Amino acid sequence: MTKEYTLNTSNIMLFFNSLIKLGLEKNLKLQIPLMNHMTAFSFNLSPESVNLKDFIDKNDYAQFYFPLIKQLKESYHDEIPDYQMVYTSLYQSGILMPSGVDHINKLLDSIRNSDILRGGDVYYIAMDTNLLRDRFYSVYLSKIPAHKNLDFVLCETVRDELKNRQEKIKKNQLRDMRPLPYELLDNCFLNQNTLADRLRYIGFLEYNYLRSKTSCEELDATSKRNSMQNDQEIISTYSEFVDIGKKIIFISRDNEIVRMMTGEDNVIPVFLEHLPGKRKKYSIQWEQFFDLLYCLGVLFGKLVIVSGKTIIADLYGVWKGKDVHEWESGSFKVCLKQPDPKYKEDYDDFLFIDNDMHKNLSILNQFRSLKI
User: Fold this and answer.
1) Whether 166 and 200 share a structural domain
2) CA nearest 158: which of 210, 98, 231?
3) pLDDT at residue 371, rounded to an integer
4) Residue 309 is part of which domain span?
5) pLDDT confidence tier of residue 301, bands split at 50, 70 and 90
6) Is the alpha carbon torsion for 33, 34, 38, 42 positive or negative?
7) Please, which pLDDT band fits residue 118 given cuts at 50, 70 and 90?
8) Does residue 65 fall inside a structural domain?
9) C-alpha R_g of the chain
10) Are residues 16 and 55 in the same domain?
11) 3-state SS class at 190
């Protein structure tokens, strides 16, 4: 038995508040059923922050990943997230920052010190596809104070790359992904996008978010058949946009396109890089924690919150029937696990969390309905 709630990243705090009220804020674990219930990390909750411990490293992840890949048909290998995707979620949630950000900081400082009325240049920040998938605007650029010398620009080729979609996952494909449990796959991925498309969709939503929050210009451009041709189109489009007194800061994690941009008049290419890390502990903000959960949920579908040996809830980032609105709002499906009543303490905890969440969601919904 379960009780289900659909929550987005702005109100999933209600679930964790209930855990804190119960005194279940310590020694929690996040497990991933798709990877044979691998523990991704442990965590403690506090009013100010979330402390992650034992974040899984590359070697430990390999012990789950490679045995599974060996058993799966090769055509389905791309549906299993590799470790780099897991590690990238730390950047997508703003827990880590790529190397090269210091260069951007220095550029922005120099821009703030120039006066457009005294001949200073106007600068436009342009991000490559990979930076949008990294949510670099949300976690970094959106926090830069507004400045009259600074704006954003987007190339439609980048948007087209992020809109690419394959056919959605069908029932017969899920049945063919043995040894993964069919019920798990069906609950998460039936008629949902493939892993590659889900990652592109994160970038597409970031593209739309940037458009909604800034006065960025969109440049008409065509989309070609392969990535190299698209890179050439992006370079050409931005090179035609710049002019005397109008420059572009082009940011990418693709070393090749940065190299190709070098030497273009009035274009300042900046290369960012995700460096390998050995950290296993992170003290992070609540917002970063929710973003991390969401990014991992998009990768793996279902996450499990465990206290001791008791499953408290299943968190779905992808589920059968998740619609466009739920994707656009960054929604989770939270399924509270109802224990057998004979386990009185666990059962009472379940009732408390359910009642507490129901009450607080009702209050929130009433507040939102007020015409203020």
Assistant:
1) yes
2) 231
3) 57
4) 2-94+281-369
5) very high
6) negative
7) low
8) yes
9) 23
10) yes
11) coil
Say if residue 27 is in the same domain as residue 71: yes
8 Å CB contact between 168 and 50: no
Q: Is 218 found in the same domain as 122? A: yes
Distance CA 258, CA 254 (A): 6
Report the pLDDT value the prediction gives residue 70, as an integer from 0 to 100. 95
Residues constituting the chain: 372
Together in a domain, 190 and 313: no
Report pLDDT digits (tens) over 237-265.
Answer: 888 887 777 888 999 998 988 888 887 78
Question: Is 147 in the same domain as 221?
Answer: yes
Q: How many whole angstroms separate alpha carbon 34 and alpha carbon 305?
A: 14
Tokens representing residue 265 in the block: 């008049």
Q: Which of 134-143, 334-343, 345-354 has the highest mean pLDDT?
A: 134-143
Same domain assignment for residues 121 and 265: yes
Per the structure, the count of domains in the chain is: 2
Tally of CB atoms within 10 A around 265: 9
Determine contact, residues 194/298, Cβ cutoff 8 Å: no
Establish if 120 belongs to a structural domain. Answer: yes
Given 244, 271, 298, which residue is the final one in a domain?
271
Condensed to tens digits (0 to 9), the pLDDT of residues 151-197 reads 898 888 888 888 877 889 999 999 999 999 999 999 999 999 999 99
Which of 271, 292, 327 terminates a domain? The answer is 271
121 in the same domain as 220: yes
Count other Cβ atoms within 10 Å, centred on residue 349.
Answer: 21
Query: Do residues 356 and 363 lie in contact, with contact meaning Cβ atoms separated by under 8 Å?
Result: no
pTM score of the predicted model: 0.92
Asked whether residue 117 carries a pLDDT value surpassing 80, the answer given is no
| Residue 73 DSSP one-character state | -
CATH number of residue 121's parent domain: 3.40.50.1010
| 276 occurs within a structural domain | no
Integer Cα distance of 203 and 17 in angstroms? 30
In this prediction, residue 279 carries a pLDDT of 86
The candidate with the shortest Cα–Cα distance to 61, out of 280, 232, 286, is 280
Cβ-Cβ contacts under 8 Å for 233 (sequence gap 6 or more) = 155, 157, 221, 222, 223, 224
